[in-house]
């Protein structure tokens, strides 16, 4: 039995319950499916913020701790910030699914390359279990709050004794790339940004004005990033004056670091990881 339920989970489940009660057509199967979906959202809730730092994935590196200065409180997963010479850091902005095991594993892989990594939990302790619930959760995160959480996470990571505050990067996965770019436009505070399959405008006037190096990693088989589209994005970045790189990863269909995405390819994911790690090593120093 859960001791607490995140308000965002309740809101998401409630929206589904209302939709179920109003669904047209034969009532039995659609309603039952919606109710089951709502149950799965509630079942995915974890304690939103522990009272003190706590372990995640027993026996493996990393821990949960609160993001300083955020109310209502949210947690973050932190790994690779051990004592020693100051190292570069990465704030990882998770996928539409939330701060799940895949995101924690990705953070650990970057930590093994010498980065301190923080993954703020924008969904306040909820992990989506289906596309329906993930869409509800994404819609429930207001841009203002998402940016405030990212700003606090960046500042907290840079304040750690073993981290160089001048060498903080940000990696946004899928929808996380959108939030990350908005943060960089409005607040800065990072030295480099990488995005996984984030749709960037091909209009120079609309291109994000971030002023720091930007890497966009895309799948070669995704229609939205065909050769012509990639060329337009490159030209827009150049005309906007943004230091821009694009890594075109072969053999995948959609998001590179999302194992639930259609067309996910583990070999392509590893190639994308190497490209992103090399980008941060070059831009932040590793």
Helix/strand/pairing class, anyone?
alpha/beta
* Assigned CATH architecture of the largest domain: 3-Layer(aba) Sandwich
Terminal Cα span: 44 Å
CATH class of the largest domain reads Alpha Beta
Structure notes:
This protein is of the alpha/beta class and 286 residues long. It has two domains: 45 residues; 237 residues, Rossmann fold (3-Layer(aba) Sandwich), CATH 3.40.50. Helices cover 40% and strands 18% of the residues. It has eight helices and nine strands. The chain has a nine-stranded mixed beta sheet, with helices on both faces. Helix 1 packs antiparallel against helix 2, helix 1 packs across helix 4 and helix 5 packs across helix 6. The longest helix is centred in the C-terminal third of the chain and has 19 residues. The radius of gyration is 19 Å and the shape is globular.
Identify the notable features of this structure and list them briefly.
9-stranded mixed sheet; 286 residues; disordered N terminus; 2 domains; 40% helix; alpha/beta
Task: Give the topology.
Layout: H1 7-22, H2 28-43, E1 54-55, E2 63-66, E3 75-79, E4 87-93, H3 101-112, E5 116-120, H4 131-140, H5 143-158, E6 163-173, H6 175-186, E7 192-196, E8 214-219, H7 227-240, E9 244-249, H8 266-284
Parallel strand pairs: 4-5, 4-6, 6-7, 7-8, 8-9
Antiparallel strand pairs: 1-2, 2-3, 3-5
Helix pairs in contact: 1-2, 1-4, 5-6
């Amino acid at each position: 039995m859960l001791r607490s339920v995140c308000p965002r989970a309740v809101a998401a489940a409630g929206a589904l319950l209302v939709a179920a009660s109003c669904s047209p057509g034969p009532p039995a199967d659609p309603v039952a499916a919606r109710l089951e979906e709502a149950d799965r959202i509630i079942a995915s809730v974890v304690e939103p913020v522990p009272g003190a730092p706590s372990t995640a994935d027993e026996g493996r590196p990393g821990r949960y701790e609160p993001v300083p200065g955020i109310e209502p409180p949210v947690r973050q997963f932190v790994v690779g910030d051990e004592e020693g010479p100051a190292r570069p850091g990465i704030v990882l902005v998770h996928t539409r699914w939330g701060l799940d095991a895949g995101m924690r594993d990705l953070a650990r892989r970057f930590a093994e390359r010498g980065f301190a990594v923080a993954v703020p939990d924008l969904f306040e302790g909820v992990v989506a279990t289906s596309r329906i619930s993930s869409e509800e959760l994404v819609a429930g995160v207001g841009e203002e709050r998402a940016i405030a959480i990212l700003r606090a996470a960046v500042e907290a990571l840079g304040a750690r004794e073993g981290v160089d505050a001048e060498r903080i990067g940000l990696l946004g996965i899928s929808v996380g790339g959108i939030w990350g770019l908005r943060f960089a436009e409005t607040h800065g505070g990072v030295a480099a940004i990488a995005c996984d399959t984030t749709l960037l405008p091909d209009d120079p006037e609309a291109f994000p004005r971030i002023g720091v190096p930007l890497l966009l990693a895309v799948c070669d088989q995704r229609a939205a990033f065909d050769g012509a589209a990639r060329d337009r994005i490159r030209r827009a970045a150049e005309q906007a004056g943004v230091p821009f790189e694009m890594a075109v990863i072969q053999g995948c269909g959609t998001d590179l670091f999302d194992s639930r995405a259609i067309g996910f390819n583990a070999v392509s994911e590893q190639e994308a990881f190497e490209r992103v790690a090399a980008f941060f090593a070059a831009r932040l120093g590793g």
